[in-house]
Amino acid sequence: MDSRIWVCVLPLDDKKNMEKNIFISYSHKDKEYLDSFRTHFNTLKDKWVLWDDSRIRIGQNWKKEIDKALNSSVAYILFISSNFMNSKFIMDEELPYILKMSKEQQAKMFIIFVKPVFLKNFPELIEIQGVNSPNHTVIDMDESEKERLWVKLIQEIDSL
Q1: Chain centroid to CA 94
Q2: How confident is the model at residue 146 (pLDDT cuts 50, 70, 90)?
């Protein structure tokens, strides 16, 4: 398994909302940023259950479980950094599917620029309005800016 985990948000009990899964893609090396976001995400715990690869049981096919979460999502959150861009699995398997779903307007894509990264060869990512600017990444933010960024993202998710 490569050095990242995948997270999918699954709604509770309401069958109408079963389509509102959110898939989060990030590098394990950037886990601290997901942990910070997760604290804010807990405000939506009555509507959503956070799924991550720690729920994959021993003996389960991890790729199949991740694909299932990816395919059942109507929104994707990408925590972009050089770690993210250097993941073969993200670049070969995940990102093409996410970009296709976003382009076809079958899913919404939220981009969080975690650290400065060279994106010239990825116009699809540059063209999407990020939650923050690639010129003002999370690593550049002070604590209050990070908190406001997470609240902004939570508000967007809550409006899905």
Answers
A1: 11
A2: very high
Cα–Cα distance, 51 to 6 (Å, whole number) = 8
Instruction: Report angle CA 110, 116, 120 to the nearest 5 degrees.
Output: 80
Q: State pTM to two decimals.
A: 0.84
CB 107: neighbour CB atoms within 10 A?
A: 19
CA distance 152 to 158: 10
Separation between Cα atoms, residue 28 and residue 148, nearest integer Å: 23
Helix 31-41 to helix 143-158 angle (10° resolution) is 60
Please give the residue range of the domain that contains residue 10.
Answer: 4-158
**pLDDT digit string, tens, across residues 20-42:** 788 889 998 999 999 999 899 88
- Beta carbons within 8 Å of 95's beta carbon, 6+ residues apart: 25, 78
Q: Which amino acid is at 72?
A: S
CATH code of the domain containing 88: 3.40.50.10140
Query: Hey, how many other C-beta atoms are within 10 angstroms of the C-beta on 38?
Result: 15
Cα 5 to its chain centre, rounded Å, is 10
**3-class DSSP state for residue 111?**
strand
pLDDT at 5 over 60: no
Mean pLDDT of 131-160: 95
Domain count, the chain: 1
